[in-house]
Amino acid sequence: MKIGLVAAGLLSAVAWAATALLGVPNPITLVALTVLEPSAVEPWFARRPVPAAATPRVLPVRPRPILDPVPWKGGRVSLAEMLAATHTNALLVTQNGILVHEWYRPGFDGATRFPSWSVAKSVVSLLVGQAITKGQLAETDRVSALLPYLRPDLRDTAAFGRITVRDLLDMTSGLAVPENYDPWDPLVGTAGMYLTRDLPAFVRDHARLSSRPGSKGQYRSIDTEVLGLILAEIQGRPLADILSEQIWKPMGAEAEATWNLDRPGGTEKAFCCLNAVARDFARLGLMVADHGRVGATRIVAPGWIERIETPARQEVDGWPYSAQWWHVPNGDEDISAIGVYGQYVYINRDTGTVIVKLSDHGAEQDEADTLAVMLALARALARPGPTARPSPE
In b/e form, how buried is each residue of 277-297, taking b as 16+ CB within 10 angstroms? Predict the structure, then answer.
């Protein structure tokens, strides 16, 4: 028994030492991340607060029926079936600034902070747009000129002397960091970036190209992380503070959000991991839908909203894309912020609709089918008269 205990103690010590040496979270956290639902990961990482507005934007609530059944994979199913099939935790639907539908799975409610995952990329885009509007940044700027520790004369970082802000925005940087979300393979690609305890060092150490910058659209989370590093560098403060002062408070957020960090007091995971209540994700979508305004307050310049809404020259992995926002194939010129595991902030300006869907679904599963449901919901809401029976409770 004593020998067994000693052996177990030695294995534990080795595991803790190994994770420290590799610069990733401790073994307990790593194990937890393999079994937790994606919606439950916020407290397992350090985080920085994103204070909300002193006076939240009023979100009028007028429940009304929404489309049910909905199109799904070539057929039609009840909305409840679709939400269950995609492991949905929250669904909010607004039309013309009014919340017409709000649903939460048991165990979640209006006070729950939900992780954005890659919806955060679209938020970073808005902050970049603000910096460009203020003249702090240009899309033609080279990364190495903006981040001194990535200058071409340091180590093998010459790649950053070729990559522009535009390349990062449109996912055409060519950086060779694959999108890997496997917690059992934690040192490769995006999984390694998610777990590292030193994001600037991770970026510096992955300055390798798989394609010429600007030549090919490839979804790369590292592109957004570099944008986050640039914003923090040029403004001299953490990304969470920038978000709070420039978007979260001005748009009238009702609840404090958080942004997960690589380590206590460290760097925001800009490519993911903004945690907020569902209604504030809706407020974000409403601000974009209203040309970057909330009432008379201009938050994001209309030129940047136009940039987001105009597909870039290169598609990203076969989908129209622009400045960290997806364009819905065969839609109404609608756009969406999309996060892994089924997070959406969908905007259809033609119908005045914003839809927020937050889930614990497969990594990149059923995205086209889910967006088709949102398009159908938006079009049905825009039609006069009754369009559906009451939606599920």
Answer: bbbbbbbbbbbbbbbbbbeee
